[in-house]
Amino acid sequence: MPLNSVLRGDCIEVMRGLPAASVDFVLADPPYLVNYVDRSGRRVANDRNDHWLVPAFEGIARLMKPDTFCVSFYGWSRADRFFHAWRRAGLAPVGHLTFPKRYASSTRMLRYQHEGAYLLAKGRPPRPAAPIGDVIPREYTGNRLHPTQKPTSILTPLVRCFCPQGGLVLDPFAGSGSSLVAARLVDRSFLGIELDPAMHATASARLSAGPRRRPPLPADVGAAA
Ligand SMILES: C[S@@+](CC[C@H](N)C(=O)[O-])C[C@H]1O[C@@H](n2cnc3c(N)ncnc32)[C@H](O)[C@@H]1O
Q1: What is the rounded CA–CA span in Å between residue 203 and residue 106?
Q2: Which of 76, 175, 192, 199 minimizes the number of CB atoms within 10 Å of its CB?
Q3: What is the pLDDT of residues 43-83, one digit of tens each?
Q4: In this predicted model, what pLDDT tens digit does every residue of 23-49 receive, in sequence order?
């Protein structure tokens, strides 16, 4: 199993070559199936179609160890398709996370001011030692590195809560590598997969630069006890 790197390719193909039951936590930020185009014309690969959705989550579930968690972001307007894929893969929803923003990302029928993710279980994972709240405010990243870049500040609590110390975090839709950076910040091993060559280069550069570790927080020390 290649560790602490981001592999370039289609996650469905790449995951086929990885050993089953080898991952402790999956943090997935897949395309939302909304054909998103940002103000400068940037798009997200595979955001127009869902042919990849079922096989990708079947591959994810195969790599998860028994009784472990996956957090998956999703597009709210395509929630039915995500649920179909998760259930086909044998992943059961056991919680829902909301990430409110101080700004609206768009305004139509509502001012759209939050994103969501489901906490999914393979088997029956034990209750986390220190469960986190299901509302995590998010700041604006500026989307400098990716058109839908997630702030690492909303990802580190997820990794700390749902991945055991010394465990391996997988992000099959790594984008600019935010979840991999988050995993590294809290001292977990990580593996990313990214289809878009430009994004893969961005994530690789980001991982080879920047701080490798931050000093342990009291929360980590408590979690280890
Ligand atoms: C929502 S973005 C992830 C953004 C990331 N969380 C960040 O903060 O930069 C989804 C990513 O999945 C990638 N992608 C889409 N289909 C894929 C596939 N089949 N295999 C691997 N990556 C894929 C896209 O290129 C895109 O970068």
Answers
A1: 27
A2: 76
A3: 999 999 999 999 999 999 999 999 999 999 999 999 999 99
A4: 999 999 999 998 888 888 989 999 999
Q: Are 114 and 134 in contact (CB under 8 A)?
A: no
Which residue's CA is minimally distant from atom 2 of ligand 1? Answer: 175
**Domains with residue ranges and CATH for the chain:** 5-224 (3.40.50.150)
Averaged pLDDT for residues 191-207: 97
Tell whether ligand 1 has an atom less than 6 A from the beta carbon of residue 115: no
Q: Is 131 helix (H, G, I), strand (E, B) or coil?
A: coil
Does the beta carbon of 146 sit less than 6 angstroms from any atom of ligand 1?
yes
Spatial CA neighbour of 70 closest among 94, 45, 88 = 94
Strand pairing category for 189-194 and 106-107: unpaired
Mean pLDDT (the chain) is: 92
39-43, 190-194, 198-202, 204-208: segment of lowest average pLDDT: 39-43
* C-alpha span between 134 and 99 (Å, rounded): 8
Q: Which residues contact 11 (CB under 8 A, 6 or more apart)?
A: 56, 59, 172, 173, 193, 195
Rg (CA), the chain: 16
Q: Is 196 near ligand 1, meaning CB less than 6 Å away?
A: yes
